[in-house]
Amino acid sequence: MFNIFDQLNDQLLITDQVAKVQICNAQKSIVHQHSSEKLKRYQALEQELQTFLNIATDVHAILNEHLEIISCNNGFQDILGWEESEVLKKNYVEFIDYPDAVQIITAINECKASGQVATNIAKCKCKDGKYKWIEWRGKYIANKKIHLLTGRDITLQKEREEERLAKREAEELEMLKDEFLINMSHELKTPLNVIYMTLQLESEEIKSALEKNGQEIELNILKRHDKIIQRNVYRLLRLIRNLTEIAKLESDEYRLNFINCDIVSIVRQISLAVADHMQSTKVKITFDTDIQELITACDPSAIEQIMLNLLSNTIKYRKDESKVRVSLTVKDNKVRVTVKDNGIGIPKTELEYIFKRFAKIDTSLNRKCEGSGTGLTVSKYLVELHEGSIWAKSQLNKGSSFIFEIPIVQISDEKDIYYGSTSQQIEEKCNIEFSDIYDI
């Protein structure tokens, strides 16, 4: 009897163990099936995402924290020509043209710090040596320490934009040329007409005196006529000089004569000479500097011409009572000269064009002066030949500031120092430069 029960018990134990194994296997099968389905769904989603990225973007890549490419799509090859083996483990910035690379690094760092999506446009290097414009979008994934990047090829849009810009600039230049030629015609005809008319007056007065049995001609009348003729001859000389200088500067034929000069003395001399020249007007010119002497290599004639051009431009566009302050300072091993006035100012829309060829601010018929608009262009060329820079700041009805700076350098084997032109030479230059201002 007990043997029967023992056998039954053993059978139940075996059955129970088999059932447990079957249940366990069933559970494993369910888990495996669930994991397999989950993996398939994940792989499907990953494939869908990859397909979406390939459709939505031209290039995409994953970078590590050192900006090395650890994964990329075929866009690098299709768009830029680089094969995957040539891209992987390379620094992403190596494929960006300078200086866009600097902007890209800044954008990536900002993206990493803020956690926001960053957008930037960069000129990217192709394998064939050409460049393409790519609009990049990136985001830093902090928990994985990776950068996700997508890029869109906008080369065609950029080229069309540049073509439109070039066309617009060409049209603007053509318009400026037309205005310039009209202005040149006026600039040439006006002094020539004045000279011709003055000579006719002199001829009539001489003829009248002869008809009156040798009556003497008043000397003051002849002097006044001579002064008018001289001023208009100066105007023509100034116009021809500026046009000739621009032609030489643009053809790279212009050469500066660098010598060691006391630039403080040169700027002071020109400023004070112009102040004396303008004594008959309400223009007050002052010169200010904390530096008594500063020796630097420059072309003194060019510096004098720059100063005369800036002061002439300032005086032309003055108010009835104008104050002009010339200051000289030194900063970062550069000498800076500022010509500041309280004149009529320059509109913001025209401020960026004033140093360009043919540009002119006031083309109205009631302006207080004539001028071809070439003086500031010449000044810009001369400053840049000194490896310097020139710019302007202005507010309407409050005044303008024209600033230029050049590096301080010296010719080591040059012992002589130039301190400036003679007063007679400067006066002659002032006569020419200010010949187109009516009321001096």
TrEMBL record:
Domain PAS, chain residue ranges per copy: 45-100
E.C. number(s) listed in UniProt: 2.7.13.3
GO molecular function, one term: histidine phosphotransfer kinase activity
Histidine kinase domain: residues covered: 183-410
Annotated InterPro entries: HATPase_C_sf (IPR036890), HATPase_dom (IPR003594), His_kinase_dom (IPR005467), HisK_dim/P_dom (IPR003661), HisK_dim/P_sf (IPR036097), PAS (IPR000014), PAS-like_dom_sf (IPR035965), PAS_fold_3 (IPR013655)
Main location: membrane
PROSITE patterns assigned to the protein according to its UniProt record, in alphabetical order: HIS_KIN, PAS
Organism domain of life: Bacteria
GO CC terms in record: plasma membrane
Keyword tags: Kinase, Phosphoprotein, Transferase, Two-component regulatory system
Subcellular localization, as worded in the UniProt entry: Membrane
Catalysed reactions listed for this entry: ATP + protein L-histidine = ADP + protein N-phospho-L-histidine
Cross-referenced Pfam families: HATPase_c, HisKA, PAS_3
PANTHER family per UniProt: OSMOSENSING HISTIDINE PROTEIN KINASE SLN1, TWO-COMPONENT HISTIDINE PROTEIN KINASE
Name of protein: histidine kinase
Species name: Cellulosilyticum lentocellum (strain ATCC 49066 / DSM 5427 / NCIMB 11756 / RHM5) (Clostridium lentocellum)
